[in-house]
Design brief:
Elements (H helix, E strand, L loop, with lengths): L6 E3 L3 E2 L3 E2 L14 E2 L6 E2 L7 E10 L10 E3 L5 E3 L4 E3 L5 H10 L4 H12 L16 H10 E2 L4 E7 L5 E6 L5 E7 L3 E4 L6 E2 L2 H19 L4 E4 L9 H12 L11 E5 L3 H10 L3 E5 L5 H7 L8 H12 L7 E4 L10 H13 L4
Parallel strand pairs: 1-16, 4-11, 9-10, 16-17, 17-18, 18-19
Antiparallel strand pairs: 2-15, 3-14, 5-14, 6-13, 7-8, 8-9, 11-12, 12-13
């Protein structure tokens, strides 16, 4: 078997696809035709580790108009598809699911059994027929009031090197892609911002990828939210999706292996560090405001000193928590030895960072 990379990269804003390093995400293989594709990947730098790269970005437009009101809520934070008037099960945290199950007259034990069958036990259920061991009346209630899927599989493609690209259609007609990468390759494409993804749309990519590829590629252990969009613009759904992914009775990703990559959106970064135990990666790319303003326009609003001070303040309350700094070297711009040494010294010498 090839060396599969098992890191899944998820971005939470709908704009473009991406496959980047420290980057898109069955026991039964579904009957889709696999056709070879060629040049849709670029090089990464850690070929020996397993990565699942998963885009949570609608990357391909369709003829459907985008309707931002397709998803609503029930007033308690539970996502509902307006097209079916059913709750989206993968849009709920465990505590929300437990309350919802109880509201229909069932005990919390039914909630944990459902949760395990959606996210654990190598089942990753997509419909009530796969809920073996659950009460018959409970399954009937689920079929009448809940949807397991926020995504519909459109196509699956396989490249000659074993890379798989899955196209999902969203409820509003947008299309996103999830890619499982078997080697040191990645991709970035620009399609323009469309909309934020719901927590259910983000989580379901991870569930589908595990269901489809675990037997072939082995365990998928890492998730990274990143891409052409800024994940922290969609902070509510990012935090919620990450919470669902790390639940110890479900997908059970380690919080240290679920990473959100940010360009430095300071207010949302502060909130993320306060509310989530998952990891953070900061796209640094320069050690002076002059250079970073040009490379990353967000720096004109949130200067480097403010970004670093925010990290120091919030990390002082977190035990053994480390920040990953991402630094892309651009020839003649930020690749001089002084800039690179400053970046290294920042992480080595700072007692917090």
């Amino acid at each position: 078997m090839k060396n599969w990379m098992s890191k899944m990269a998820i971005s939470a804003v709908a704009n473009s696809t991406f496959l980047l390093l420290p980057t898109i995400p069955l026991k039964t293989i579904i009957p889709f035709s696999l056709t070879k594709t060629s040049s849709f990947l670029l090089s990464l730098t850690t070929p020996s580790r397993r990565y699942l790269s998963a885009s949570a970005l609608p990357s391909i437009s369709t003829d459907h108009d985008v309707n931002l009101s397709d998803f609503s809520g029930d007033g308690n934070g539970v996502a509902i598809s307006r097209k079916s008037s059913k709750v989206l099960l993968k849009g709920m945290t465990y505590s929300e699911l437990e309350k919802w199950v109880q509201s229909h007259g069932y005990r919390p034990g039914q909630a944990i059994m459902l949760w395990k069958r959606m996210y654990g036990n190598n089942i990753w259920a997509q419909h009530t027929d796969e809920l073996e061991g659950l009460n018959k009346d409970f399954k009937k209630m689920l079929s009448e009031n809940a949807d397991f899927k926020a995504l519909a599989v459109k196509e699956i493609h396989a490249a000659s090197d074993g890379t798989r690209k899955i196209l999902f259609t969203l409820d509003d007609g947008m299309v996103i892609e999830t890619v499982v990468i078997p080697c040191d390759r990645g991709r970035t494409t620009v399609m323009g911002l469309k909309r934020h993804l719901t927590a259910a749309e983000i989580v379901e990519q991870a569930v589908f990828a595990r269901r489809l590829f675990t037997s072939e590629a082995g365990s998928i252990t890492n998730v990274v939210f990143m891409g052409m969009g800024e994940p922290l613009h969609n902070i509510d759904n990012v935090i919620k999706a990450a919470d669902i992914m790390v639940h110890d009775q479900g997908l059970h990703f380690s919080p240290r292996k679920v990473t959100v990559s940010t360009s430095g959106l300071v207010p949302q970064l502060r909130r993320y560090l306060q509310e989530s135990n998952c990891a953070i990666a900061v796209s640094l790319n320069a050690t002076t405001d002059e250079v970073r303003n040009w490379i990353m326009p967000i720096n004109r609003k949130y200067k480097l000193d403010l970004l670093l001070e925010t990290l120091r303040e919030e990390l002082s309350f977190k035990h053994k928590y480390k920040v990953l700094f991402e630094y892309v070297m651009l020839e003649g711009i930020n690749d001089r030895s002084l800039s690179w040494n400053n970046a290294k010294n920042l992480s080595i010498n700072d007692p917090i960072l």
